[in-house]
Amino acid sequence: MLVSKINNTDINYCIYNASGVRCSTKNELNKLNISKSGIVLSKSCTINSRQGNSLPRYWDNNLLSINSSGLPNLGFDFYNEYKCINKPYFISLSGMKYDDNFYMLNNLNNHINGIELNLSCPNIKGHSQTGYDFNQTENFLRKASEILDDKKSDFVFGIKLPPYFDEHHFNKIAEIINNSKVNSITCINSLGNGLVIDSESESCLIKPKNGFGGIGGSVIKPIALANVHKFYSLTKCSIIGCGGIKTGNDAFQHILCGASAVQVGTTFYQEDTECFNRIGDELKEIMINKNYKTIDNFKGNLKYL
Ligand code: RRO
């Protein structure tokens, strides 16, 4: 009932992990591999391994999460060599320099089913989010498209975008994507540079960047839905919804806005792999009540008043 496709890659289950959460180590990837998650997506990686930012760098409650992890990862070779059994394996790439991304794209192993190029990490001091610089994004995607040109037709060339808030920005970035070989878009990364504070201690809740970090969780769902729906309308790419998915109803809304699959971040952090079963069961119940047999029966069918 929850089968779907991302570009031409079939997935048995349209719910999987957001990059960054519980997908950095071999144990975490193995655990994802035997879970319900429809895909295993790695932590964003750099050529060399990184420790990431200082602790504490994550905090959450029922409504939101804030993180400034700072790209802790085991390095490209580890993720490039990891293999999944019985489900697609995607790796997220987030080179510290543009050329690092091109190096990783040029050296991808053949068993990797897709990539999610991260254009939107908000947490590296001194680095801006590529997706907010249209010229850089255009040049970057042109070169990446050339490198990936000889990949098979079911290879997923995905990008992960930051949230956009402006009509002109939606149109501009969609035009750039439409002139590239990108075939999948994940909307959205965390809302960059939020600040969550505690009144009692009169303090920030995370240490790096004086408390500034990427915001995820339920509070970002309306922004995620808007971005999913805009890029669904403006491109031919498969859209992956990410942002505020805690329940089957949240997943339903993302799919109604045009998502072919959804990623779970904050809730996966809070509930571990069991969240994939629960959210999927809740989504199936909604579909049964509405007499939908597959997600294609309602994908993108959002009604306007
Ligand atoms: O590692 C991080 O700090 C991080 C990354 Br790469 C990202 O893309 N989004 C995020 O919220 N944190």
Biggest sheet, in brief? 8 strands, parallel
- How many angstroms does the end-to-end distance come to? 29 Å
* Attached small molecules: ligand RRO
Query: Ranges with pLDDT <50 over ≥5 residues?
Result: none
* Tally of alpha and pi helices: 9
Strand order of the largest sheet: 3-16-15-10-9-8-7-4
**Portion in helices:** 25-40%
User: What is the number of E strands?
Assistant: 16
Mean pLDDT: 98
General description of the model:
The protein is of the alpha/beta class and 305 residues long. The chain is 31% helix and 20% strand. It has 9 helices and 16 strands. An 8-stranded parallel sheet has the order 3-16-15-10-9-8-7-4. Strands 5-6-14-11 form a 4-stranded antiparallel sheet, with no helix packed on it. A two-stranded antiparallel sheet has the order 1-2. Helix 3 runs parallel beside helix 4 (134-147), helix 4 (134-147) runs parallel beside helix 5 (167-178) and helix 5 crosses helix 6 (221-234). The longest helix is centred in the last third of the chain and has 16 residues, at 274-289. Ligand RRO binds next to loops.
Write the layout of secondary structure elements.
Layout: E1 4-6, E2 9-11, E3 15-17, H1 26-34, E4 40-41, E5 58-60, E6 65-67, H2 76-81, E7 89-93, H3 98-106, E8 114-118, H4 134-147, E9 156-161, H5 167-178, E10 184-187, E11 191-195, E12 197-198, E13 203-204, E14 212-216, H6 221-234, E15 238-242, H7 248-256, E16 259-264, H8 266-271, H9 274-289
Parallel strand pairs: 3-16, 4-7, 7-8, 8-9, 9-10, 10-15, 15-16
Antiparallel strand pairs: 1-2, 5-6, 6-14, 11-14, 12-13
